[in-house]
Design a protein that fits this description.
The chain is 58% helix and 10% strand. The protein contains 10 helices and 3 strands. The chain has a 3-stranded antiparallel β-sheet. It is globular, with a radius of gyration of 24 Å. The termini are far apart.
Length: 222
């Protein structure tokens, strides 16, 4: 209120304020409108955990108010950070980046979740990957697609030793729970891993599962 009264006496004046998400920004806009003025906002600094905004008082009612932080841009920035953290073997820092974004009021998209799952597996943290999957997919934060499942399947298969039991469970889960039928895109990397592992029994079992889903192996399958 003090800020609003100062703006009436000495316009224009600017204030930086940590506005965490669209909801709080909307509340501030409503407050300024109630006092017969508008606050014009422009983003000055954006991180996953702290969206800092500048509110500039405008004496004339009717001026455009509030340019919100673009959630898509925040998601893209966080996804890039997750990938970078994976390259430096920091999967738990990558998870914190995701959690910070969520605390700021922005839910992740499939690209961000897939990137985090890939980082967890790349760094040998399969249990952490399963935790992320349970939080993001099983609890409905994101609606999964085949790419999410392919990341999980490849991650379990590339473990040393390969976790084929988890692979079969994930193949069953994606179809029975989410109605997503695995395609060649999901099976071919698994076949390649089985061959590299010199495990023909697993390879033939995967081919049997493909046949049960009416999938025909392509040139990459062989």
């Amino acid at each position: 209120l003090i800020f609003m009264s100062l703006c009436h006496r000495y316009p224009p004046i600017a204030l930086e304020y940590p506005a965490k998400g669209r909801r709080q920004a909307t509340r501030l806009q409503a407050l300024s409108a109630h006092h017969g003025m508008f606050a014009k906002m422009c983003t000055v600094n954006t991180t996953a955990s702290n969206v800092r905004c500048r509110f500039t008082a405008c004496a004339s009612v009717g001026e455009e108010a509030f340019t919100y932080v673009d959630p898509a841009r925040v998601r893209a920035d966080v996804t890039k950070r997750i990938v970078k953290l994976g390259n430096t073997n920091n999967p738990r820092e990558a998870l914190l980046a995701m959690e910070d974004m969520q605390r700021s009021g922005i839910d992740p998209d499939l690209k961000a979740v897939s990137a985090l799952l890939g980082v967890c597996f790349k760094c040998g943290e399969s249990e952490l990957a399963q935790k992320v999957y349970d939080e993001m997919v099983s609890k409905g934060t994101v609606e999964p697609d085949e790419i999410i499942f392919s990341t999980m399947l490849r991650g379990y298969a590339e473990n040393k030793p390969p976790q084929w039991k988890q692979v079969y469970g994930m193949l069953n889960n994606m179809k029975s729970k989410f109605g997503i039928c695995p395609t060649i895109t999901s099976f071919n990397p698994l076949l390649a891993i089985a061959v590299r592992s010199d495990d023909p029994e697993i390879a033939f079992k995967l081919i049997d599962l493909m046949a049960a889903s009416d999938l025909v192996p392509d040139e990459k399958s062989w």
